[in-house]
Structures are given as structure tokens and as C-alpha cells.
Amino acid sequence: MVNTDLSNPFEISETLMGYADEVPMLGCENAWIAAGALMSAIKNEGTTNVTNDEIDEVLIRTKNQAIGGYCGLTGVCGIAPAIGACFSVILGAACPKDRETAVTMKVVGRIVNVIAGETGPCCCKNFVRKSLFEAVRLVKQYLNVNLPLPDDAIVCSHAVRHPHGCRTEKCSYFQEGTHQPREGEIQPPAESGTECKT
User: Fold this and answer.
1) Model confidence pLDDT, tens digit, residues 144-160
2) For FRET with 91, which of 74, 158, 170, 185 sits at 20 to 30 Å CA-CA?
3) How many C-beta atoms surround the C-beta of residue 165 within 10 A?
4) How far apart are the C-alpha atoms of 38 and 147, rounded to whole Å?
């Protein structure tokens, strides 16, 4: 990710999520993508100085807190601390500090809230996208960095890969005709809010 010159986090994340052989449909790799895409975009936008070492630090922190299945087990999807780590590193947040730590916690709270609106079943691809939309707003609000939004509507190409069944029309990235259910595939529940386990 540090080798890209893109400043659009959605272009970066969609490219990385497109490596289906290396990136599972569900899993903490998606949290690393969210963090890496956001940090690389901020670095390339240029308003805030971000080093490759700082990107590495964010990925290390994300790896330490992004744990598979914890979205359902504790209510903390790994993408939330991933985005939090981005702000923590950039702001220099730490336990003894005031505003820097408060902002980081507020960011994580906003990301958790966004993700919570997209469950039933959980979908890491959706969570990456929704979190990045919110992160772009938060980066503007707290860092005064303007990151671009997608040029076109995002259409998910991963629906058929979902082991618990794609949410189809409940997902804002689903497009009719892009999902071909596999035999025996679990269909989405009638109502959202079910426990997510990867």
C-alpha cells in the first residue's frame, strides 16, 4: 500500500479487496485494508505528513486488535480499531493525553455505530466501505484533510463468496444480477441484527 500514489481510499481498498485469492471474504485482512487504504490516501493527499513507518505502525496495532469473529462476540469489528489506529498514530494519542485520545475514541465510536447499521449477516466488504465513507468525513473534521469519494457508485462483486449469505437488497453495494446463489447457500435472514461469526 505504501507504493501507491492514489489519494482515494476507495480506489485503494477496492483494488486490494479484489485480490480474492489472497483476501478472504470475511476476516481481519479486511481491517488491514481499511487502515492501509486510509493511511496511504492521507499520505498521498499531502496535507498531513504520514510516513511509511507510521503506516506500518497502524497495521501492527490493527493486527493486535482485529480478531476474527469479535464483531459478534464483543461488538467490536476489527475495522473500528483499525480506523482508530490511523487517528491515534497521526494525532499522537496516548493515555496521558487529552484531546488526541478523546478524538481517537470518538472516531472509533462513530465507526462502530456505522458498522452496527450494516449487520445481518456481517460483511467485511460492506464494513470497509461504510467505514471509509465515515472516515473521510472524520478526516476532514479532525485533520482538515480532504479525501475524494468514489467517482462512481460502488457495486460489490463479492456477494457470491459470502459464507453466510449476502444481504442482497439490504446492502447499498448490491446490484441485481451480480449475485448468483450457490446450491445450499444460507439466505439472508428476514431481519437484521443476527450474531456474526466468521
Assistant:
1) 999 999 989 999 999 99
2) 74
3) 17
4) 9
For 86-103, write each residue's pLDDT tens digit. Answer: 999 999 999 999 999 999
Q: What distance in Å separates the CA atoms of residue 47 and residue 143, rounded to the nearest whole number?
A: 9
Identify the three-state secondary structure at position 180.
Answer: coil
Of 46, 30, 49, give the one whose Cα is nearest residue 118: 30
Closest CA to 81 of 48, 115, 51, 49: 115
Domain ranges of the chain: 9-143
pTM for the model: 0.87
Share above pLDDT 70 across residues of the chain, in percent, rounded to a whole number: 87
- H helix intervals, the chain: 9-17, 29-45, 52-65, 70-73, 79-91, 99-116, 124-143
